[in-house]
Amino acid sequence: MRTALAPPPRTEREAPVRSSRVESGRLSRARARQRRRRATAVCVLLGAALLVGVDLLRGGPEPVPTKQVASTPAVTDSPEPAAEQSPPAAQPSPSVQPEAVYQMAGEFPASGPGTWTYASGQSEVLGTAGAVKRFRVAAEKNVADEELDVFTSMVDETLGDSRSWIAGEQYRLQRVPSGSAYQFTIYLATGETTRKLCGAGGMDTRLDGVSYTSCRLPGRVVINLNRWRMSVPDYVDGKIDLHTYRQYVINHEVGHELGRFHEGCPGQGKPAPVMQQQTYGLKGCTANSWPYVDGKRYTGPPVA
């Protein structure tokens, strides 16, 4: 709010006309200088607010890369809901018994250094229409030798499938190497690193004290190595292969990055929507990895 300038004090004696004009000129110049100072201050404040807003939108600092990124990460190049926030962790299904699954997977790290190895090269542009959204793929350093190639291949295969998000022709997707402009990164992180990254965004990935779920933060899709290696009880009990669960978790978390929210099971025995939290149980639905079924977007009722 601007403060009105107080009029100059009146003198007891009237000044000569010439002196009055001189005084008026001085006052006009003083007012002009004051307006310039106010305009400069407003510009500075607006610039600072813009920088803070951009930082909040990006969701805080990104995990430290393995090498300096040469270019500034691009902002999304197609409209997304401005108010989209990472979805909160849902309450676990009573059927979830993570300890039974943990016995299946063999030895792998529960934690890591929180630094990353990025996939090299780039994919073809996946899809036929829509704005191109570019992404990187990375694995935590202590699992990258074993997992990065498989993880990268699975991401390319899943997002390039005609049943994935590209089927809607709203987006095309392309994997790019570190150092290129990008809109988001897909990370494969150990359980403890997942807990820390997701916790920084206000999400608790733990179940019974163990880092259990994956998550999405603005610009960051974080896949939990525990789930990547072990799947979940409803998939295991239903003898649904690990490959299918991996497709599901990639499509689910990338769906959040594309602005999609959680959905519920539409009915007993029906396929689970890909935006259903299948990691917490199928809730009477059958496993499904894809957002498009028979060429149509397949959804369930919204979940608050």
From TrEMBL:
InterPro entries: DUF3152. Residues 78-98 have a biased composition (Low complexity). This is DUF3152 domain-containing protein. The keyword Transmembrane applies. Residues 1-34, 63-98 are annotated as: Disordered. SUPFAM superfamilies: Metalloproteases ('zincins'), catalytic domain. The chain crosses the membrane at residues 39-57. Residues 106-283 form the DUF3152 domain. Residues 10-26 have a biased composition (Basic and acidic residues). It comes from the Bacteria. Keywords: Membrane, Transmembrane, Transmembrane helix. Pfam families: DUF3152 (PF11350).
